[in-house]
Specification:
The complex is a heterodimer of chains A (about 100) and B (about 230). Chain A has about 100 residues and is mainly alpha-helical. Chain A contains six helices and no strands. Chain A is elongated. In chain B, about 55% of the residues lie in helices and about 0% in strands. The chains are: A mainly alpha (about 100), B mainly alpha (about 230). Chains A and B meet through helix 3, helix 5 and helix 6 of A and helix 1, helix 2, helix 3, helix 5 and helix 8 of B.
Chain lengths: ~100, ~230
């Protein structure tokens, strides 16, 4: 696991002084797990902290998330034909082992 | 495209040696033509309540395996009836979706193998993170329609142009070892553990295939969106 990087520049921001951040590289390495909700809560928060302060990564991650959701929504329109559903329902009642 | 034999991938279900050692599975007998002589009776209502929530996802898996609606419907019916006959082997509380998908993959390999399709031969050159995003935000990009007004919001433009056919073609163009993993995670929202169970591969392999497979998918989407068809 990568140790979160202390960004000295942000320590001057007051309340964020103790916050840990991933580098862009470490955050991007977790992109898929972030998209697929596979990160631990601690890792997810650390990625989110990076995104909060890194506009380019926020833009990229948002695009990737939108792309996955969009693809998933569109493909979910592909459903079992109704007549096949009815046929399967019927077969279970007439094709008992 | 010529019909090719599947190239077995080590550790995958496609090696034709379904794993029977895991709880909740036990697919070897499911391959038997007639099954046991007197299996316990299955309550069709109970079976449907457990399995039907996954029917659409199973149908889409059949479409990806066979490549056409007719064969996908036949494969779904075979899988469904096979699962019904062997429902007594299913352990409630285990993953019904992964169980069904594994039966389908096994039935497909056993009965439909001659019709199996190989993914495209693809080059891994130029794979990068954020492939689509980078193309869309390059200065002066004129792809995906090329209209200047669209390039002012290229992300919106490309997402609007993604249709089911384009997505399906891009998924089908992936090499088979990436196709399943990318489809199950991206389209069917399976967890990495579920994918590992379904495909009988380690979770680490799921991660590595997703990492490369999603980049390949983005490149394929870009090519199809721009009409740069790579299919022969």
């Amino acid at each position: 696991m990568d140790e979160p990087t202390k960004l000295d520049g942000w320590k001057k921001a007051g309340e964020c002084a103790s916050a840990d951040f991933y580098s862009c590289e470490a955050a991007i390495r977790r992109l898929n797990e972030y998209l697929d909700h596979e990160l631990t809560e601690a890792d997810r928060i650390t990625v989110l902290k990076h995104l909060e302060f890194c506009r380019p990564c926020m833009s990229r991650f948002t695009f990737e998330q939108t792309l996955v959701i969009s693809i998933r929504q569109k493909i979910s329109a592909l459903c079992v034909p109704q007549n096949l559903k009815e046929k399967l329902h019927s077969l279970l009642r007439h094709d008992k082992p | 495209m010529a019909e090719l034999e599947l190239q077995p991938t080590p550790g995958q279900l496609f090696n034709g040696q379904p794993n029977t050692g895991q709880p909740g599975f036990g697919l070897s007998s499911i391959l038997e033509e007639d099954g046991p002589a007197s299996p316990p009776p299955t309550n069709p209502d109970l079976f449907e309540s457990e399995m039907n929530p996954h029917l659409d996802a199973l149908y889409r898996n059949g479409l990806r395996l066979t490549g056409n609606a007719n064969d996908a419907e036949d494969l779904l019916q075979d899988t469904y009836l096979r699962a019904y006959r062997f429902f007594y082997q299913y352990q409630p509380g285990t993953n019904a979706k992964a169980w069904l998908f594994r039966i389908m993959n096994t039935v497909f390999l056993n009965d439909y193998r001659r019709k199996s399709r190989q993914g495209e031969t693809v080059s891994y050159d130029g794979l990068e993170d954020f492939f689509l995003y980078n193309r869309l935000t390059e200065d002066g990009v004129t792809g995906v329609g090329g209209d200047r007004s669209e390039t002012e919001n290229p992300e919106k433009a490309v997402l609007e142009k993604l249709d089911i056919e384009t997505i399906q073609r891009a998924i089908e163009a992936l090499p088979i070892e990436f196709r399943d993993t990318v489809a199950l995670a991206t389209l069917e929202e399976m967890s990495y553990q579920e994918i590992a169970e379904t495909l009988e591969i380690p979770v680490g392999t799921v991660r590595s295939r997703l990492s490369r497979g999603r980049k390949l998918l983005q490149r394929a989407l870009w090519e199809y969106l721009n009409g740069e068809e790579t299919r022969g």
